[in-house]
Amino acid sequence: MLTIIQINYIRKLYFDKGYSFKRIEDATGHNYRTIKKYLEMDDFNDELRKKNTTSKSDLIRPYVRELLLEDKDEKRKHRYTAKSIYKRALEKQPDLCLIKERRMRDIVREEKAKIYQPPCFIDLQHPGGEAQVDFGEIYIYENETKKKASELIITYPGSNAGFCQITFSETMEALQEGLVSMFRHVGFVPNKIWFDQLAAACVREKNKDGHPIIADRFLRFATHYGFEPVFCNPYSGHEKGNVGAT
């Protein structure tokens, strides 16, 4: 059985580049029957037992971001340090702070980069049929209780249309379920979707060229629905920025 990366490559050669079966055989080394099988396949759901995709870092990350946002307007010397955040997290959120101080330093650095990223204005150019997706934070009332939730936002730069789906997490399951709901509401699936480097969809590793490595399960999902996932580079506002304006 081929991996989802091999399957996705075969389908791109046939559907995107117009390769013949013979040419795909030469390019991949797979026989005619194998190629035909995966070109005709329309269900790419993973039959393996689902694993818990929530990492220890993801559990404490929202709390870290909340603290950093609290003192964003404070003078630099009065702001939280990674050490003080780690100490506070152990005291206030012991059930969620299951990481070491060294990992906390990484999380604080990553979240600060997002919060204190300098503003810039760059022309955005995306052809029709593409979409941009990102998570945002939102507060909702449930049974008269104020709660913090996430909103999955998809926008279409070609028409400036946008839609959102409320979720209570930013896991891969929440991302996939939210996308499917919006695909059904809109009535079509974009041919290309641009993402920030979402932990839910992208492994926190990069290949030798510095590009993020897409998780097999998310690539399987993208192949199933027929869109190409593209992950933006950090601090590259020209690649994706439409979501932030919604």
Your description of this structure?
The protein is of the alpha/beta class. It folds into 3 domains: 4-40; 56-115; 130-245, 2-Layer Sandwich (Nucleotidyltransferase, domain 5). It contains 8 helices and 7 strands, in the order ααααααβββαβββαβ. The strands form 2 sheets. The protein has a 5-stranded mixed sheet. A two-stranded antiparallel sheet has the order 5-6. It is elongated and about 65 Å long.
Topology:
Elements: H1 4-16, H2 21-28, H3 32-40, H4 56-70, H5 82-92, H6 101-115, E1 130-142, E2 145-156, E3 161-167, H7 172-186, E4 192-195, E5 202-206, E6 212-214, H8 216-225, E7 228-231
Parallel strand pairs: 1-4, 4-7
Antiparallel strand pairs: 1-2, 2-3, 5-6
